[in-house]
Amino acid sequence: MNSPREWLDLLPWRLGALVLVAAGIGGLLGQFWPALALCFGVIAAWQFWQLSRLLQLLRTQRRVPPPRGIGLFAQLTEQLHRRQHEARTRKRRLTTMLRAFRQAAASLPDAIVALDADDHRIEWFNEAAQRLLDLRYPGDLGRRLTRLETVPRVAEWLRGDAQEPLLDLPSPFHPGHRLTLRLLEYTPQQKLLVVRDVSKLMHLEQVRRDFVANVSHELRTPLTVVHGYLDMLDPDDMPDLAPMLREMRTQSLRMTQIVEDLLTISRLEAQERLPTERIVMRALLDTLQREARALSHGQHEIELVDTAGVNLAGSNKELHSAFSNLVSNAVRYTPAGGRVRLLFERTAGGGVRFAVEDTGHGIPAQHIPRITERFYRVSTSRSRESGGTGLGLSIVKHVLNLHGARLAIESEVGRGSTFACEFGPERVVERGAALSQFDED
User: Fold this and answer.
1) Strands 352-358 and 339-346
2) Which run of H or E residues covers position 114?
3) Structure confidence at residue 73 (pLDDT)
4) pLDDT of 11
5) What Å distances lie between residue 286 and 265, 291, 319, 320, 347, CA to CA?
6) 301 bridge partner residues
7) Distance, CA of 62 to CA of 54 (rounded, Å)
8) pLDDT (0 to 100) of residue 15
């Protein structure tokens, strides 16, 4: 079979031969020009018919059959037939991949809902969404997540930027179940809502909390008895046992402090909100500065900078405890002759920021993400020498979470650290303004 190039080379000769034959017959019959015109008319009609047939196949999206014959249209038909075959092959491959992805998404244990990016209407959901969100196929396609959006926390979350996941939400569909929601940017026109049932995890977490609280509570009494008996033993009366008695007293006090901190964390974890009252920040800042100087014993430079000029709405007791933890950490971990700065300033978003800066040892970058975990220590020996329990920053984090605030940590080894408590504008109260709405009931 000749190649396409060979057919193209032969085509002019065939047409030329046809024209010569028509011209010869016309000359013999004495009708040269009519015969020549008839020849060209037949050629044009044949080409027009071929073109019409091909356009009809393309217009009806029918399958182009394999080419028959020779000529330009045969070559064009062959190219179209080949392109259609390749397109069908790609379509089958893409359909297979799409079916596999849909089956994978449908079998996920988390609820997956594809939403319209503008009005959050449902475009697709998997089987888990039918179970967790009580959706029905196909009736709920094109509708909004009405029952879910009636929950105030969800409505507020969706109206915001929804960058952070919505954690531990009571399910409006199944009493006793807890959900975690995450909204992902899928395409410019679509978003993915991922919903996970965390009921079992929350139950296990509650069991852990109860266990820690109960054990800590049970340890308090025997530790009190041990510490009481140790106080009755005077090391001066027993010089041989004096080092051991002093060490036992130190460790007993440390154990007591650990138990108290564990009970504090358990109490904070059990609370969903704290009582809100006016916090006169100037008085609290002065108290924190005095505590820092007392703990320093004149070995550090303690500086207070208050440029915010506002008060806070929150729990005075808990925030004092959190701020005091940060201040005491800064003093303990800063060598003698260093500087500790307490800053209270405004932020760009209308909130405020309480920060504690020190010129201490600094924290390696790999430890910063885990430093608020319970009992996590950057340097075990240094923490024990300073008298820390390893729970202070965990308490700070819990207190700030209950105030809708966050703890920001910046540190560089050899240059010091900055621990900042950042509060939103809803916690800011102008000094001298009417504060009755923030007074504790």
Assistant:
1) antiparallel
2) strand 111-116
3) 64
4) 53
5) 26, 9, 14, 11, 21
6) 339
7) 10
8) 67
Q: Are 339 and 359 in contact (CB under 8 A)?
A: yes
Burial-class residue 56 by CB neighbours within 10 Å (0-12, 13-18, 19+).
Answer: exposed
Total count of residues recorded for the chain: 441
What's the pLDDT at 441?
41
Residue ranges, the chain, pLDDT below 50 = 1-10, 438-441
The per-residue pLDDT for 7 is 42
Q: What is the dihedral of CA 183, 187, 189, 193, to 10 degrees?
A: -20
Report residue 13 as tokens. 């000769």
Spatial distance between the Cα atoms of 54 and 350, rounded to a whole number of angstroms: 69
CB atoms within 10 A of CB 419: 24
CA distance 96 to 86: 15
Per-residue pLDDT at 10: 44
| Distances from the Cα of 42 to the Cα of 19, 35, 39, angstroms | 11, 11, 5
Taking the C-alpha atoms of residue 73 and residue 385, their distance in angstroms, rounded to an integer, is 92
Token representation of residue 403: 């105030």
3-class secondary structure per residue, 296-330: HCCCCEEEEEECCCEEEEECHHHHHHHHHHHHHHH
CA angle in degrees (0–180, nearest 5) for 404-402-146: 65
Backbone angles phi, psi at 261, to 5 degrees: -65, -40
Q: Rounded to whole angstroms, how far apart are CA atoms 222 and 228? A: 10
Two structure tokens written together for 66: 């394999």
Residue 187, C-beta contacts closer than 8 angstroms, at least 6 positions apart: 117
Q: Which amino acid is at 17?
A: A
Q: Are 319 and 283 in contact (CB under 8 A)?
A: no
Q: What are phi and psi of 114, to 5 degrees?
A: -85, 125
Contact 174, 199 (CB under 8 A): no
Question: Shortest CA distance to 355 belongs to which of 346, 363, 364?
Answer: 346
Regarding pTM above 0.90, the answer is no
